[in-house]
Automatic annotation (TrEMBL):
Record protein name field: Dolichol-phosphate mannosyltransferase
Biological-process GO terms, alphabetical: glycolipid biosynthetic process; polysaccharide biosynthetic process
InterPro entries according to UniProt: DPM1-like (IPR039528), Glyco_trans_2-like (IPR001173), GtrA_DPMS_TM (IPR007267), Nucleotide-diphossugar_trans (IPR029044)
Family: Belongs to the glycosyltransferase 2 family.
Amino acid sequence: APISAWPGDLAILKSEIPRQEGFELSIVIPTFNERENIVPLIERLRAALVGIAWEVIFVDDDSSDKTVDVVRSLSLTDRRIRGIRRIHRRGLAGACLEGILSTSAPIVAVMDADLQHDETRLVAMLAMMRSNRTDLVVATRYGGEGSSSEGFTGVRQVGSQMAIRIARRLLRIETSDPMSGFFMVKRALIDELAPKLSQQGFKILLDIIASSPVPLKIGEISYVFRPRIHGESKLDALVVFEYLGLLVAKWSGDIISSRMLLFGLVGLSGVVVHLTILRLLLLGGLEFPVSQAAAMLAAVVSNYTFNNALTYRDRRRRGVRFLTGLMLFSAFCSIGVLAGTGVSSLFYSREPQWWLAGLAGAVIGAGWNYITSSMITWRR
Ligand code: GDD
Ligand code: MN
């Protein structure tokens, strides 16, 4: 169709274009430092996908091990292989999205580069997509013959299952593995949803399902999650936090902002500041009430600064208002400090445990802090 739309004097080129088949299936593979895995992965894809018109698109976030160079050297002799190099960007979801939007194949699969996903299941997934009874096929570790115990440590397994349970509860998502990084989908669906999808973190599948205006027809194929041999996992605390943030936001219908989450986190950081300073001052030989009051004040200033920059950044107090805000905040908090010091000193006199007493004081301070901050210091 695009060829017939060319201006007349270019129409001659039409006959010079050799007839070639398009790709039915495009496999999009996000990579970040996966150099060692590329060649074995391509070999496995070639073996698994005989008879299928497939291509593979690697989307690399400028890996320091030059993963994309390996991809490019392979693509010189096999035009089914393509590499996209992104710079100054990080994000599994965004990389997948970019790969999906760069292909014309009607069906796309997303899969990890590290050989943890069983590429032989692609054939069954494609058959299910071809049957046209599904918009999306999830390769699951938690249904049928699937399993995750080989590829995950005990902690990751428990964490993964908890994340899934929360997702299904909160968002009523009807798939056994909404956290899967291995799935197949109609490209047209992603074209439609793309503007709504988040670029951050690992939660692309969950995001696709949760963002679709109509319930999707979801199929499942089980597989055994393999252990990683080369390289290491990129799932870290930030990825987990982003996941929780998405769940809370979607669950509340995007009403509960991340403000509460942030306030809690800032509060926790304040506890760390508080306890650290308290411990140091006590070790330095200061009296307990003095140490406690100083530690609380330090936590107050630190909390004010972080809350102003993060939690209430949309109502941020600058210049003189920053200072008056700090005065307001500390004024309210000094009442909290008094109460907190009282409570923790009482605690300490009965049970001389620095951390228990300090914690009791911090909890009193934090509660007071929250109420006065939201209602007075950063009121709209
Ligand atoms: N381009 C790009 N950018 N790729 C990335 C990034 C990034 O910031 N972070 C990770 N990747 C790539 C990795 O190179 C790998 O190919 C794939 O994404 C998965 O990353 P891993 O770091 O191996 O993830 P995992 O094995 O810990 O997590 C698996 O299980 C999760 C659910 O428990 C993956 O399948 C996840 O997709 C899945 O959510
Ligand atoms: Mn992995």
